Amino acid sequence: MEQALRGVGVSHGVAIGQVRHMGTAALEPPATQIPTEEAPREQARAQAAVDAVAADLIARGNLAGGEAQAVLEAQALMAQDPELMADVSRRIAVGSSAERAVYDAFAAYRALLSAAGDYLAGRVADLDDVRNRIVARLMGVPMPGVPDSDEPYVLFARDLAPADTALLDPTLVLGFVTEEGGPTSHSAILARAMGVPAVVALPGATGLAEGRLVAVDGSTGEVLVDPSEEKQAELRKTAAERKAAMAASSGPGQTSDGHKVPLLANVGGPADLPAALEAGAEGVGLFRTEFLFLDDSAKAPSEEKQVEAYRKVLEAFPESRVVVRVLDAGADKPLDFLTPADEPNPALGVRGLRTLLDHPEVLRGQLRALAKAAEGLPVHLEVMAPMVADRLDAKAFAEACREAGLAAKFGAMVEIPSAALRARSILQEVEFLSLGTNDLAQYTFAADRQVGALARLQDPWQPALLDLIAAAADAGRATGKSCGVCGEAASDPLLACVLTGLGVTSLSMGAASIPYVRTALAKYTLAQCRRAAEAARAADTAEEARAAAQQVLSGE
């Protein structure tokens, strides 16, 4: 009998196939005591396993490229964390085997993160994956990972670690469903980048039996168990109609009455460029530069290395807008040479622009590299600062840009509610705003973006979040300056229409979402988008806001 389950749709498309579960290793080694004289051998085994896992994660990142590479390199740093390794050594010295010492040391650190209740709690899944890989290597058992299968399937898991998601084979993995995670988790972002249908935060996902037939709609979040032949045909027809509509849609983003809404790409490095160009991106709305700094957490990359990487992206979009975000270090992206190791609440501590203002030499080096990279290129370079809180922050960043001789527009990201509420003040210092809706939702609702249990509060349809977006867009309109969205909210086709109605001037997203958004915008007039935005803001819940906007746009 057909059964309908509901999670959070995070990546468009429909997948119909049999359930396959993520494989796990025997993760808890026995608590046996080893003789003191064997401690050096166990120390060497532990270090070798850690180094091998770190190297494997980096290799996977190099294969995956783009955003996935940055995520996996961060995991490699986690594997080799000096404090964790010191704890492993202490445990081996008092009689633990290498595998048991690793298991217990990671468990202790995991407990600290889980209890912290802050941004770092969202890294627990990544930490567990690193631990599992090290322990599996030490115990000689298979690594946790994607199941072996000759036939395509739908992958189910409690959560998907970045190392697994980054290298999913879309010819075999039709889609995936997780019990944990949220719409802005690493796995969700990577799924959208790959174009694989995905649903997260589905209660009981891991309880579905292996081999059961399911239909996954990554747009609606619906998962049908044992769908009828008629329902399967209906879903395939809907998916085919969406695909045909996207194929027929091309050119710049605009409403049906010609209101221009540039559709830009979010990129994590040069490896993301081919997909962005193929999707018809009109430029880059968010160029994340962290990938350069994660190669070596002990020091900043040379200006020469930065220039080379920046120029590749700038060259790919001649005569187009390329918006670069300067280094966003801190919280879930710690760097040994920049970020404090003992912050009680890193998400609310020294991160983003605060970190760079504490280390002006790093900011100056990056701005100089961007200036050199843009020399002689017919590109519209724009540079923005992350985590701007107020006008003083914006002024400090603008002054740093001028001092570096940067011939570019400089702007501020709106990720903190104070920046949205005081956007007009901030625009006295900078030339544009870009809304990072992932962090803006997190800070508005005090809801960690990586915690699946808080998915309701991470929903970009929350009316309070729409109010903040409207406030920033109004400030942009009043000052004659642009206000775009580069958070994952822009990748939702229906929400993209609402954002346009709120006054947002550009939308930036993962390349795979651009055709969906272009197609949706082309169906409606600007007036319809404005009415949908008004209806969404008048609602009390995210679900009601989405339904109200849909009702307006469907003419019901």
From TrEMBL:
SUPFAM superfamilies assigned: Enzyme I of the PEP:sugar phosphotransferase system HPr-binding (sub)domain, Phosphoenolpyruvate/pyruvate domain, Phosphohistidine domain
Keywords of this entry: Cytoplasm, Kinase, Magnesium, Metal-binding, Phosphotransferase system, Sugar transport, Transferase, Transport
Cofactor(s) this protein requires: Mg(2+)
Broad class of the protein's primary localization: cytoplasm
EC number: 2.7.3.9
This protein's record includes keyword 4Fe-4S: no
Family of the protein in this entry: Belongs to the PEP-utilizing enzyme family.
Role summary: General (non sugar-specific) component of the phosphoenolpyruvate-dependent sugar phosphotransferase system (sugar PTS). This major carbohydrate active-transport system catalyzes the phosphorylation of incoming sugar substrates concomitantly with their translocation across the cell membrane. Enzyme I transfers the phosphoryl group from phosphoenolpyruvate (PEP) to the phosphoryl carrier protein (HPr).
Full protein name: Phosphoenolpyruvate-protein phosphotransferase
Gene symbol of the encoding locus: ptsP
